[in-house]
Amino acid sequence: MTSLPGGMPAASRDLLGHGPNPPNPHWPGGARLALSFVVNVEEGAELSLLSGDDRNESLPEAAQRIEGAPDPGMESHFDYGARVGLWRILDAFDRYGLKATFSCCGRAIAATPVLAAAPHERGHEVSAHGWRWEVQAGMQENTERAVIAATVDAIRKATGERPVGWHSKSAASLNTRRLLIEEGGFLYDSDAYDDEIPRFAPGSRHVILPYCFDTNDMRFAPGGGFVQAEDFSRYCIGAIDWLLGQPGPGRMLSIGLHLRLIARPGRMAGLEAILRYVAGRPDIWVARRRDIARHWRGCRG
User: Given CB 3.0 to 4.6 Å as the disulfide criterion, which of 45, 70, 126, 197 pairs with 108?
Assistant: First the structure.
């Protein structure tokens, strides 16, 4: 790292990326856009005194955090995703013949294996989303290594296959990507929000697939910007249309979903509008994230 006058450190990270001339990803069939739906499966992995954690979830669905006592109300908001949301979302993707990546927390799958088994049986990818629904930034390396191993094991037991993708909740640690590469079975991670084109981690064939927090149903949270179902569909379809209309090489877009959020009756129409809009279009490759990562490896030598 170089130093600026006065001892101020310069930025040490790569801010240029691909620059003004991003590589052509050559998406299959000449598609202009690789579209990835990611369904986050966190039900049963949220922090809860009732589950033996030292505190309750800090981001409850209701705008009230309970400290020092169990919070069964918070748990029931998450339970909705497992009891209702999973099946509603699976059926919607089946109706339009599209596949997604189900990003699953290990503890959720260990407690309720069908949360991973059912998507796997219908041809969706099941990837890893940490053990508990918790930020990994600052986690001790030996703890994080154990978290990765436990999550892989839970998903393998539920589906018969090990996950090849990883996505940390919000913030990875400084060690996460290195530990994933050292573990040896991961093809990609989604712990980046900085681009619209995949890339390799420095010095490796490990693929970094950027993710999005704006084309994401998490914005249905109070103050997040989405209220009506069409707020979500208009925003996501607007992003799709704008990317398709740009010159130059194709891009990648992720749409984030959560079992307990998008599956509510007042919101599902938004998801179905997007699925209907993209189904069967030759200019859009709707793909599981592992397929995008494998394609990137293939087209980049």
Answer: 45
Whole-number Å distance between alpha carbons of 128 and 106: 7
What CATH number does the domain containing 241 carry?
3.20.20.370
Residue 160 lies in a domain: yes
- Is 105 part of any domain? yes
Is 26 part of a structural domain of the chain? no
H-run or E-run covering 39:
strand 33-41
pLDDT tens readout for residues 109-126: 999 999 999 999 999 999
Element (H, E) at 35: strand 33-41
Q: How many domains does the chain have?
A: 1
Cβ burial of 183 (10 Å; 0-12, 13-18, 19+) is middle
Distance CA 184, CA 125 (A): 19
**pTM, whole model, 2 decimals?**
0.93
For 17-54, b/e burial (b = at least 16 CB within 10 A) is eeeeebeebebeeebbbbbbbbbbbbbbbbbbbeeeee
What percentage of the chain has pLDDT greater than the value 90?
76
